[in-house]
Design a protein that fits this description.
Strand content: 25-35%
Low-confidence stretches: none
Mean pLDDT: 96
Order of helices and strands: EHEHEEEHEH
Structural class: alpha+beta
Shape: globular
Length: about 160
């Protein structure tokens, strides 16, 4: 089965691509997603070997800043059960977990990030979910074509 492509958003003041680079083995769990649609992707769709664009959100400029690979399939986000965690969910049941996460490993940081503003004018990205009005999901699919176009524009090999 061919790898799928995804975009994962993170606020760099919370967790940046540089933080991922400093993580043990350049790997981290992608925890804290609290949207059911994104949760379903993490739980059911995103698989080990899939590729990820790392996107810095809520910063100027917002941009795709690098890539990562999924190294562990979806599993229950254990923070939902930790009362002291900012991701605690008192309604979540360990027998039927509500929230999921995956593990990702940094591939590379782009020398030239691709900004949201630039993406809006790049041919081949017209249908990209990130560019649609109201597309706020922190985890979203990316087509193989979009994956290649972004890499080309960034001056990176896909």
């Amino acid at each position: 089965m061919a790898a799928k492509y995804w975009l994962m958003k993170s606020e760099p003041n919370v967790f940046s691509i540089d933080d991922l680079n400093k993580s043990p083995k350049k790997t981290t769990c992608w925890e804290g997603v609290r949207n059911y649609q994104a949760r379903n992707l993490l739980r059911d769709e995103i698989k080990k070997g899939d590729r990820v664009f790392f996107y810095h959100s809520r910063i100027d400029p917002m941009a795709i800043v690098g890539t990562a690979t999924v190294v562990k399939n979806g599993y229950p986000d254990y923070h939902q059960f930790e009362a002291k965690s900012k991701y605690y969910d008192s309604k979540s049941d360990p027998e039927n977990p509500r929230w999921y996460m995956v593990d990702i490993k940094l591939d590379k940081k782009f020398k030239t990030p691709v900004t949201l503003k630039e993406m809006r004018s790049i041919k081949g990205l017209e249908e990209m979910m990130l560019l649609r009005k109201g597309a706020r999901l922190s985890v979203q699919p990316v087509s193989a074509k979009e994956w290649k176009v972004i890499h080309k524009y960034a001056g990176e090999s896909a």
